[in-house]
Structures are given as structure tokens and as C-alpha cells.
Amino acid sequence: MSVELLQYIGLFVVSLSVLLKASDWFINSAEAIGLSFGISPFIIGVTIIAFGTSLPELATSVASVLAGQSEIVIANVVGSNLTNIALVLGVVAIMAKQIDMEYNIWHIDMPYLWGSAFLLWFAVADLNFSLFEAALFLCGIIIFLSYSFGSDKSDDDNEEKEEVNWKTYLTLVVGGVLVWLGAVYTIESITQLSTMAGISPDIIAITAVALGTSLPEVIVSVKCAFAGKTSIAVGNVLGSNIFNTYVVMGIARLFGELTIPENIITLQMPIMIVMTILFGIMSNNKKITKWEGMVLIMFYAFFIAENLKEI
Predict the structure, then answer these.
(1) Where does 44-116 show beta strands of DSSP type E?
(2) Which residue from 260, 239, 238 is spatially nearest to 249, judged by alpha carbons?
(3) 70-110 confidence digits (pLDDT tens)
(4) Does a structural domain hold residue 31?
(5) pTM (2 decimals)?
(6) Where are the alpha helices (DSSP H) in 99-257?
(7) Which CATH number covers residue 59?
(8) Phi/psi of residue 98, nearest 5 degrees
(9) What percent of the chain stands above pLDDT 90?
(10) What is the model's pLDDT at position 113?
(11) Is 21 domain-assigned?
């Protein structure tokens, strides 16, 4: 193994670690600021935390477009969405024994998630993602946020507001800057490693990068589950996938043309659609058991195995 290869592997590990740690700072400070404004915990989970945990996907996608590796964008979105459902919910269901939902996500959240998944599939089926479609996706997230902040899903309206100071806002800014720098160098290392190994960047993005950028969702959701807040864990996955689809695709397209690899449409996208539908079916009775969690993990293992065949 050459010294240059080891250097880029090291750069990938360090930059991705900085990206995840900075995202954690950003999420914690954003959550504290949200609570200080009296926003309910569920709404924080499905919006602020979901957006925060989607920051790595957004940052790496924008950086990939600027670096001329725009095929990473769709791979990152599809891979992360699938990982969030299959791996994150699977792990949470197994570790917490069962995910109980205190609200009916079929009221609007699940249909909206299904709608975002199908809209993404239709939008990129022609291997093109236009500016009009990007604008449409950004309108989609505005509608989702308007609904989320306009509805009250918290049963505890008397919850004390959290106090924040200037350090919280500083952490928010520093975290955001480090997220961007971590993303830039993560994409740089991916580009170099894929060139050296002769592997398509989108394959690395849909597996290694998707797993890495989904670690915040894993950590946040597992913590919520063990704290007895499984509603927030589910809300985090729901919100994160909706943000990934609408915000990551929409904003990344504003920075340049997006390349849509054909293998994403023929293999990975159908698996993501199936997992999204399965998520809805499993949650229909307002719970996801550990046995269903094991089924989700099996789908994730199949997804990884199929992508390894491409290497």
C-alpha cells in the first residue's frame, strides 16, 4: 500500500470525523436554541435535529458539485435515506426492543415521506435534474416546515424553556464552519481514493459516505430511544429523509448540473422506494418491533452486498 494512498485514507477518516463531531455541536446548539424559543420536542426532532443530522449530506453534496463530482449527490441522498430507514430504525428497534409511536405519523408525515421518495424517483428517471425540479423540491420543504411548525404534537405545553447564552450561538456558527470544511476534504479524499482504486465515486458515496453521514442519525436516534423518546427517533428519520430529498437535491442543483448515474435508477433507487414503503407498513400500528428491526437490518445487508458487486 503506497504512502499516498495511506495519506488519503487518513484524510478521509479525519475529515469525516470532523464533519460528524461538528455536526454534533451544531445539532446540540440548535436544539438548545429551539427549546429556548419554546418549540416542542417532536417538532425539534422532525425539523431542527433532522436538518442538523442532514448537514453532512448537504455539505458533502454541495462540495462534490463544486469539485466536479456531482454524481455523488444522488448517491449520497439515496444511500443516506436507505441507511436511515434500514440501519438506523433497525438498530433502534433491536436495541430498544420496540419503537413505540405516540402519534399517528400516517396523518401527514408518512404520506409526505412517501411523496418525497416517489417525486425524487420521477424527477431523476430521465437521468436529469432541472432547475425547475430543484425549485419544486425547495417549495416542498417550505410546505413541510410550514405544516410542522403550524401543528402542535407535544402533549406537554408547560415544558420549561431552556436558557442559552452567546456560547451556544458561537458553537452553532463554529460547528457550521467545521461541517463545511470537513465536507470539502471528505469529498477531496473520496475523489482521490476512487481514482487510485478505479472505483466509481458514486459507489463509495452510496456506501461509505452514506454510512458515515448517517452516523449522526444513528447516535441521536439511539440516544432518544434509550431515553424513552422513541417518537423523536422516528421523527428524526422521517424529517432527515425529507430534508435529504428536498433540501440536499434542491440546494446542490443550484451550484451546478447534477450527473445521475444509471445504476442508481435501476438498482439503488428501487431499494430505497421499497424501504420507504416498508417503513410505512411497519409503522401502521404505531410500533416497530425488534423482529421488524431485524428485517430492516437484513435489507441493509442486502443493499451493501449488491453495491460491493459493483467494485
Answers:
(1) 98-100
(2) 260
(3) 888 898 899 889 988 988 888 888 887 877 776 667 777 88
(4) no
(5) 0.77
(6) 109-124, 131-150, 166-197, 201-204, 210-213, 215-226, 230-243, 249-254
(7) 1.20.1420.30
(8) -165, 140
(9) 21
(10) 92
(11) no
